Amino acid sequence: MKAILKKIVPVLAVVLFAQSCEKETPKNGEADILTFCIAEEGKTMEIPSSTSAINYRLTKDLALDSLTAVVTISENAKISPDPSEVRNFSQPVKFTVTSESGDVHRDYTVTVIARITDSTSDGEGDDGDSAVVAPQIIYNGYFELWDTTGSGNNLYVTPKGWASANSGVTSVHSLGYSSIAYPTFRTTDAYEGNFAVALQTRQGRTSSIGVVPRLIAGNLFLGTMSSPSLQSLSQPLTLTKFGIEYTFNSLPDSLVGYLKYIPGPEYHDENGNIVSGTVDSCAFYAVLFEGSEPLDGTNVQTSSRIVALAKYNGSTPISQSQYTRIALPFVYRRTVTSTANLQYAIIASSSKDGDLYKGAPESILYIDNVNIILKHSKKK
Amino acid sequence: MRTTKSAIFAFLLAFSFQAVCAQSAMERPSRFEFDFNLGLGVGGSAPVPIPNTISEMSWIPELCFTFGYNERFAVTRSFGVKLGVQIEHIGMDAVAEVSQIHTQAIVDGDKVEGIFNGRNETHLRVTYLRIPLLLSLKPGSKWNFCAGMHASFKLTGTFEGAVSNGYIRMGDATGERVNIDGKSPYPDNFSDEIAGFVWGPEIMVERYFNKNVSVFADINASLNSVLNPDFKGLDFQMHNFYAFLGTSIKL
Q: Is the whole model's pTM more than 0.80, yes or no?
């Protein structure tokens, strides 16, 4: 018996344990820009894994033609050109990140958005109201500039400087629902210019279980869409981070936009049951709030930090066939004397209660020429 | 289903051999030996070599067993051929830190697929009908050294596991990064991906205590993967390495 064991034990040991000796870890296959910062501005921006278009907003008055970028990238990856060299950001700049493993490349397009102030006008004025000639102060509020993300079936577009829940739909595709079209997209059916943005409510999960929502409303907002964890896909309200820095010296007077809306034929409740007699309606509102932290879907209309809200309540009917100008006054909940430490967001959705998974699949909202009119320009 | 049919076929084949042997045995009883055996063992199923995408692996053995019936035909005084039919249950649990492995997982009923970094745990249980065909060297009355091949047909099997404490890049390394905090199990169909047939080398050493009773040690491995070759759920092959100690009784 001893003799047998003497023979067997070494063989066993070799077979079972020789494999487990230490080895070098594999070369990293990731090629991401994790954070981006313009050194002269100093504000570091986290880059969601799904995005390859970095839109960096300046809050300081800086010349775009000589800025320095500071990036962090995936471990041991390489980036070119060298971001630390001073360069001209007056046009979008392309950076390529190559993974440590060498076989994965990601191209990033960095757009630095100059600070827009009360006196800046980078577009035509809003002439819908003859009494007001207000400069366009929302970056890309006329939706002429677009970013492309992903490829193939996972390709979607986003108006530059805006965010949508489209990245969440990429996750939904990965969960086997690859036929669900992106709810936020570009249309040439514009009020003015070449493009407008279209938001369309999609039918989501049809099975009784799963993390995929039953209804996915098209949305568009100023802020960032954070990367989901799988578990958080079922609580998507926390993923939409609303708000960008309020850089104007005057407080907002009203939110203006041109909308067209066609509600879908069948209104669904949160369980996917059809509710007859209910017609879907859209959401279009702007919120001004205090603090440096963003709001999210759970508190965007209820937070105690909210200073003012301008909200479409259905009182002006929106045509189904042509763009209707909607002007919404900011209703102040309290008085603020300074515009420092304020953020604002503009939010639109093709189903008003889409955040509660209620709405009509196929409801479509077209939006163009969104702007904010400031109090001082109103007086002019 | 096809696997079960192959197993039955192999079983019948082995028994027809036995019938032939038995018939011959009556004519020349000295050339044939028959025995029943029972053994217990441990082992593992792992990629070979273990890729550098797997680190900090811990292995929890499952008590494995084998039992069956063997025949030895003596070709010369020392050399012979041994053929058997064994029912063999193997299995193991493994927990490993993995980086950049391609996998699938279920989250609340939905399947995700991509490149995973984090903790991976695996539970494998398979019962095979194993047919060993070995050359046997019996230098005296005490020892029997055997080496050869085995063919093993899956009777039942489960392959389960989960990923946790990490993140997955959906689709490929540039896909959306999604955190996986809690345990997300493998899809149910991973069990269907256990290969119906594995084969490989086998060695066996037998020590006789008397004319009828012996103890044996047996090691068998699989050259093909315990998982189907076209299985895309995990991006590595797993090979069986199992060792048994037992006793056999000559009839």
A: no
